[in-house]
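Dear colleagues,

As part of the handover before I leave the project, I'm documenting each prediction I ran so the next person doesn't have to rerun anything. This entry is a single chain, and its sequence is reproduced below.
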Amino acid sequence: MHRKNLFLMNNVCKSFSVSAGNKPLNVLEDITLQIGEGEIVALIGPSGCGKSTIIKIAAGFEKADKGSIVFCGDAVTAPSPQRGVVFQSAVLFPWLTVSQNIAYGLKLKRLNRTLIDEKCAEFISIVGLTGFEHYYPHQLSGGMQQRVAIARVLIMQPKMLLMDEPFASLDAQTRILMQQLLLSISVRLNPAVLFVTHDVEEALILADRIYVMSKLPGSVIRKIGVPFLKPRPISLMGDYEFIKLKQEILSLLFN
């Protein structure tokens, strides 16, 4: 099925100055990727290959040295609430409760209080935090804090989610639940998703397409279409074709 492109990164390069007198560190080299409406695209590669830098450039937090970044037909020049970002660790307001953190963006939009309360309750339930509405971040585990951060982004219903290993801090059971949550959100809200992970199985469960990256300087060495129909049950991990594709990706990462 053809999907209209929502996001395009074309021939992007990025380097960083390390120290005076040294050559800049070349982090990204000719990165080209595209994401259609409602697609989940995964980035996977060795640690330090520039995956998080791609997220920061897509979000508008960093500027590319070369190349173009286009979202909804316009050049990306600054952050936008239409591109929601979920970081590796939770970034919460410590003085706000779970409910207040999740509802923060909606309050800035001055929505009806009843609607805010309804939406907040809905997403608290979705991420499994019912009963913790009035807790503060320091009273929660790291995994629970990250679920609050995820809910706070999802409740805004952005057109695109930029997710930098958002489930890495969660226990195995919760991680699986959150993967299934993201798939259900994808169906219900239809955002484009750019998802960074080190977990090949996670990429295969979630993504429509996987970009495999090289060691530094990071470049795309393979683009892989994931053939499995959605929704994808956890039992898919035992499927022969799933295991075969996983081994193919692992061989790319370790060669």
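The mean pLDDT is 90. The beta strands are 5-16, 25-36, 40-44, 66-71, 74-75, 83-86, 160-164, 192-196, 209-213, 220-225.

All the best with the project,
I.
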